[in-house]
Amino acid sequence: MSAPLPQGWEDLLAKRVRLYRIMPSDLRRQLHGLMNLFLHEKRFVGCLGLEVTDEMRAIITAQACALLLNRDTGCYPGFQTIYIYPGSYIAREKRSEGLLEVIETDVRAGEAWRRGPVVLSWEDICEDAEAPGAGFNVVLHEFAHKLDEENDSHDGLPVLNEPGQYETWAKVMSEEFAALCARVDRGEPGVVDDYGAESPSEFFAVVTEAFFERSVELHRRHPALYEEFRKYYRVDPVHWQHGSLNATADKDALK
Fold first, then answer.
1. When comparing pLDDT for 245 and 76, which is higher?
2. Which of 29, 74, 164, 175 gives a 20 to 30 Å CA spacing to 244?
3. Could you tell me the domains of the chain?
4. Alpha helix ranges (H) inside 97-255
5. pTM of the prediction?
6. C-alpha 5, offset from chain centre
7. Bridge-based pairing state of the strands 81-85 and 118-121
8. Residues 171-193: what's their mean pLDDT?
9. Is the pLDDT of residue 249 over 50?
10. Distance CA 128, CA 167 (A)
């Protein structure tokens, strides 16, 4: 936890990972230790001939470990492997309809298997990095699913830090999920991505994306929801904006 990152990684992260760029220095130091632990415990596998580079390891690991800051938790226990595709990939799923077995295909940017690996598209990771503030981040999304399953279920209810939070979490999350579903039905835009209306589990994952990527807007439009996620993740990214290396642009976002 106290060892430095490999030479050149800090400069790489400052250039390519917005969360790292705006993060306070004390959290960066903590992040470095979490990254070392993650890299020690996990393995990266390239798919379709993709060669995994240190750049890929650094960018994925930094974003995955940003969800663990200030939290007394393990480093995503229960799985070991991250598969990386060059771009979006086709996933096949089987489902049964009576005696009929149906095989469906779906184009994906990532997925997190329950008690299994995380799968990511490198192209989508790069696009997310090049469009900061858009609210999309496949790494945050899929690793939020890994946190969600810590209670052995993908239900949008992770293991909370404080027992007293469960009551307010249930109230706020149920109200906000219902409001999102109603907004999607009306075809109106919002801070939280429409995909969150698919299920409580997807709602937790997309709100995680918004919490870190569109924190100012989420705080302004959904203060109760932001507060529940602030208590859960134990960080307050709204205030990270002041420490950004790109201070002018981030201060404009706070106006």
1. 76
2. 74
3. 9-254 (3.40.390.10)
4. 122-130, 138-148, 165-186, 200-213, 215-221, 223-233, 247-254
5. 0.88
6. 22
7. parallel
8. 95
9. no
10. 34
